Amino acid sequence: MIKESKEKREWEPKIIAFLCNWCSYAGADLAGVSRLKYPPTIRIVRVPCSGRINPFFILKSLTDGWDGVLVSGCHPGDCHYISGNLVARRRFAILKDLITFFGIHPDRVHFMWVSAAEGERFATLIKKVSKKVKKIGPNTKFNNSRE
Amino acid sequence: MISIQEKNNQIEKSIHDKADKLLREDQVDAVIGYSKGTIPMRSCPVVIRNEKDVDALIWNNFCSINLAKYLAPYIPTLKDEEGKNLRVGIISKGCVGRALIHLAAENQIDLENITIIGIPCNGIINRSRILKEFGVEEILKTSIVENELILKGKSFEKKLPIEEYLNELCKKCKVKSPPSLSSLSEICVGELQDISTIEDDFADISEFESKTTEERWAHIEDLLSSCIRCYACREICPMCYCQLCFVDQKLPRWFGKTTELTEIILYHLVRATHLTGRCVACGACSSVCPMGIDLHLITRKLEHIVKDRFDFTSGLDPETPPPMHQFKMDDKQEFMLEEE
């Protein structure tokens, strides 16, 4: 009976979110304490800076079975380490170009800027990401953990 | 129009003259070049230290190796008996020159002890394509006559037009000889090329990108499915000089060891991100692949990305830092997610 109800339930994507400690993680925290509603599809990993994100983390997350990957950092110019997010932006640009070229749907991977004061923006963008990933469906192509 | 055979002879003669002159006048202690391979359709790298041996240097359309690899970081350097570094002359087609200049731009090598001997490359033959098409019987002998490549086996003989059987990258190559730069005029001899007029429309990339996501994925899957992850492409690459490659890292072991298709594609994707803005499109990776995988599409895309986004072409100037070494406040960020 439990199985039946599981099948009936609508498919929800699983999204891994890498949030920078100084802005986006605090932004997510603010969204929480402000009691804003956003879909429970994301699992947060706190990183020191968006410049800490190796493109390999993003691709490895996809092969490990996540349906979507989200990376969020401070707005350009606001980085706690002065230029970490600007370095990261160039990496993300080429990564997005490359995965699109390889035929992985560009909506699997998302990048955004959220500051510590933008709880509302965080909630809106998470809604948007969830909707986009839900639309393209489960990650079956570039996934090593599928049965 | 002079034929490819004549052109090869001209280039070979100029290599002999230049190497002989440099060694005789004691401007260099050694010359790195190509010598005859031991099997058909191959060439072999060689180090010449005496002007008597310069006749061993050759040039033909099978000189596929990028010699810059022998000067890359962490490759044992050429030394004399006392352990002093030798001054090296290096026979450079366009991509060898570009690789050296890019390594200098990354502060990995010092161009001062190096002499770039420029030659006007006339394209490298796609060996794996020939083996795929005619490799059923063993090819015992090859020769280049006029504009044709003649393959000889035990019971067959084939004539192929060389122009058509060149590497895809060589067909689209715009830098045939090392770039001529005023800052490098002291260390460059031989044929050099003016690079101010280079233009590339990347028609092949736009054609591939006009396909749907599924078609592209199917193409990439089909292309890479035979990869056995021997890492020959990494070993031959003049830009892959990390002491510990990400695929070899054990603690923690990030990367699987299987030849599962997703892991193969993951390897090629991550290697591509590492080479963005650094790849000099020499095609060495495709030429050494034991499975005959042609990676030219990825290489071209990397060139396209940096040209399109950062207006940069690798290996043309040792003074300009590569795009992934720097950033600008106003970089394009159209891919970032925004509220409407």
Describe the structure.
The complex is a heterodimer of chains A (147) and B (340). Chain A is of the alpha/beta class and 147 residues long. Chain A has 5 helices and 4 strands. Chain A has helices at residues 2-8, 24-33, 55-63, 84-102, 119-136; strands at residues 15-20, 42-47, 68-73, 109-113. Chain A has a 4-stranded parallel sheet with strand order 2-1-3-4, with helices on both faces. The longest helix of chain A has 19 residues, at 84-102. Chain A has a single domain, classed as 3-Layer(aba) Sandwich (Rossmann fold). Chain B is of the alpha/beta class and 340 residues long. Chain B is 31% helix and 13% strand. In chain B, strands 2-1-3-4-8 form a 5-stranded mixed sheet. The N and C termini of chain B lie far apart (60 Å). The chains are: A alpha/beta (147), B alpha/beta (340). The A-B interface holds A 55-56, 59-60, 63, 76-77, 83, 86-87, 89-106, 110-113, 121, 124-125, 128-129, 141-144 and B 208-209, 213-220, 246, 254, 256, 260, 262-263, 265-266, 269-270, 272-273, 276-277, 301, 305-306, 309-310, 323-324, 327-329, 331-333, 335-339.
Terminal CA distance of chain B reads 60 Å
* Multimer state: heterodimer
Across the major sheet of chain B, the strand order is 2-1-3-4-8
Overall morphology of chain B = globular
Task: Classify the secondary structure makeup of chain A into a structural class.
Answer: alpha/beta
